[in-house]
Amino acid sequence: MDYSDLIKKAAQIRVDTLAAINKASFGYSGSSMSLIEILVTLYYANLNSKPVFKYDVMKPDSADRDYLVLSKGHAVVSLYSILSDKGFFHKSEMDYVGKLNSLLQPYPNIKVSGITAPIAYHGEGLSVAAGIAMSLKMDRKLNKVFAVLGDGELEEGQVWEAAMSAVHYKLNNLIAFIDNDDLQLDGPVRAVMDIGFIQSKFDSFGWKVIQVKDGHDFDQLLDALNRAFTSNRQPVCIWCHTTKGRGIPFAEGKVGYSDVPLSDAELEEVKNYMKSLYE
Amino acid sequence: MNNESEKKSAVLGFVDGLIKMAKKYKNIVVINADFGQRMGLEKFSRAFPERCFNLGLQEANMISVAVGFAMTGKLPVIVGFGNFWGKAFEQIRNGICLSNLNIKIAAMSSGVIEGQHGVGYHVTEDMACMRSLPNMKVVAPADYYEAMNSLETALDDFGPVYFRMSNVELPVISNENDRFFFGRSKILKEGNDVCIFATGNVVSNCLKVAENFEKEDLKVAVVNISSIKPIDKQLIVDCSKMSKLLVTVEDHNVIGGLYSAVSEVLSEKNPVMLKKIGIFDRFVESAKGIDLYRKYELDEQGIASQIRSFLKNI
């Protein structure tokens, strides 16, 4: 996919995600928007004419697949939108996210085809990703492990335990995206619990840190991934500056929209806005 | 019954069993948190150096890392000291049990037996916590061979299992060929005056108590409940119908452990009186394990005297 296709795909995933959250009448609209470009890059973009993220829709458990650990589990609906678009499960499942007896739970669950790691609570994902990476290294396999973490999540102590162990075991097959949208439920991350300068924190643990100034720009994300793939003996942190509620004109950067579904009228407004942009 | 003078720790049996099973299942990996040396794991790491991972003092991280290993088809055996239930309960619940992953957890020093390290190292609440997790099975082997055999059964089976063991030398009361089954308990000694349900570290003490009582013409049955969850309901009910006095003995808080597990069965199927011996909802000071057992009446004399007083008040 080229640049303009990726932008259109991101718009489509945004609308699908917001529609599913609206139908569930529960979900994290704002939080699900900030990582859309990161996920779209992984699933749709090519790097050096090879897909960034290896997966097989027909064989979701194939030994060659890469692993994605969505540590920011509450944004899982964005991932569901991509997986249903790819055909891992039928699109109609998206109408029943988080409802009684539904397949799609509001957290990444390995019963769902295409989900490669279970996450039920924040703070555990980087450890799970490190475990997968250790196991792949042990078998001398070349599969990659990607993790996506929110920035509020970095307040959890376990993230830093995982950061330490990833360096100890020289997990250069591990790439962690930090979705740094500067907001968490109670307000700006800086005001709730200042996590400080992310770059120097990961640096001092021994990670290779690549900063992406605009985490919604595919060129910058791909450039960062290109550099990450050549890492030698070090895990890589791709630190992405993002905007909460990105793509929803009236919700960008607003805490209030982070954990609520959009109303029907708001959803219609977003749909029209996306149409006006790309058609 | 085996040679009585033989004494070996359950932990040793677990490690020996692990070495045996690692040859059978090539995907077994052992993950531990800086307790390898103390728990005799170096025997395993000498045999399979590439299959041992030390995560340092990161219990929470260790559990989640094991989840990662399980995602790639490995069979992680987490070995640690016993404080996971507190330090990494959420990781065990959300990571392992929720997805019903094939991960085995071994707590190597449960109860108050690691007495001198202080109350922070006493593990007297783990059965209560682990028992309440869906999908989790809980096993408390009573000796060397039972640890080995229960590990073998657990590795042949699928799903999370919590082992509750201790690193003190206990008399060997089973033998190599005794097979272990989940949800099945064994009557170690028959008797119809008193029935003792015991688990883990204290089973061998209970056997001695029963033998001593025999001299006084009191017939005491001893049931080794090593499979705490699932529990052998039928055997418990049958035993409760045969004896005049029923007692549970455990190196665990009397809340949530064996006493609760047996009570749950009896209150539903045959509501009779059940007495308890264990740690009575309190913290225990730091002292040698053997001295703590004497003070809190979990050794032979203590158990015998408590049973005598129960008998008086029947």
Write the layout of secondary structure elements.
The complex is a heterodimer of chains A (279) and B (314).
Chain A (H helix, E strand, L loop, with lengths): L2 H22 L4 H5 L2 H9 L1 E2 L2 E2 L15 E4 L5 H11 L38 H14 L6 E6 L6 H12 L5 E7 L2 E2 L2 E2 H5 L4 H8 L2 E5 L5 H12 L6 E6 L22 H15 L1
Parallel strand pairs in A: 3-4, 4-5, 5-9, 8-9
Antiparallel strand pairs in A: 1-2, 6-7
Helix pairs in contact in A: 1-3, 1-4, 1-10, 5-6
Chain B lengths: L6 E3 H15 L3 E5 L9 H6 L4 E3 L4 H13 L3 E6 L3 H4 L1 H9 L6 E4 L18 H6 L5 E3 L4 H13 L4 E4 L4 E3 L14 E4 L4 E5 L4 H13 L4 E5 L2 E3 L3 H10 L2 E9 L4 H12 L5 E5 L9 H7 L4 H13 L2
Parallel strand pairs in B: 2-3, 2-4, 4-5, 5-7, 6-7, 10-11, 10-13, 13-14
Antiparallel strand pairs in B: 1-8, 6-12, 9-11
Helix pairs in contact in B: 1-7, 3-5, 8-12, 9-10
What's a concise summary of this model?
The complex is a heterodimer of chains A (279) and B (314). Chain A contains ten helices and nine strands.
Strand content of chain A: 5-15%
CATH topology of the largest domain in chain B: Rossmann fold
Number of strands of chain B: 14
Lateral arrangement of strands in the main beta sheet of chain A: 3-4-5-9-8
Specify Rg of chain A, calculated over alpha carbons.
18 Å
- Average pLDDT score of chain B: 92
| Count of helix runs of chain A | 10
Given this structure, which CATH class of chain A is correct? Answer: Alpha Beta
Description of the structure:
The complex is a heterodimer of chains A (279) and B (314). Chain A has 279 residues and is of the alpha/beta class. In chain A, a hairpin with a 2-residue loop joins strand 6 and strand 7. Chain A starts with a helix and ends with a helix. In chain A, helix 1 (3-24) crosses helix 3 (36-44), helix 1 (3-24) crosses helix 4 and helix 5 (125-138) runs parallel beside helix 6 (157-168). In chain A, the strands form three sheets. A five-stranded parallel β-sheet of chain A has the order 3-4-5-9-8, sandwiched between helices. A two-stranded antiparallel ribbon of chain A has the order 1-2. Chain A contains ten helices and nine strands. Chain A has one domain: Rossmann fold (3-Layer(aba) Sandwich). Chain B contains twelve helices and 14 strands. The model of chain B has no long low-confidence stretch (mean pLDDT 92). Chain B is globular and about 60 Å long. Chain B starts with 6 loop residues before the first strand and ends with a helix. Chain B folds into two domains: 7-171, 3-Layer(aba) Sandwich (Rossmann fold); 186-307, Rossmann fold, CATH 3.40.50. Chain B has 314 residues and is of the alpha/beta class. Chain B has a seven-stranded mixed β-sheet, with helices on both faces. In chain B, helix 8 links the parallel strand 10 and strand 11. The longest helix of chain B is centred in the N-terminal third of the chain and has 15 residues, at 10-24. The chains are: A alpha/beta (279), B alpha/beta (314).
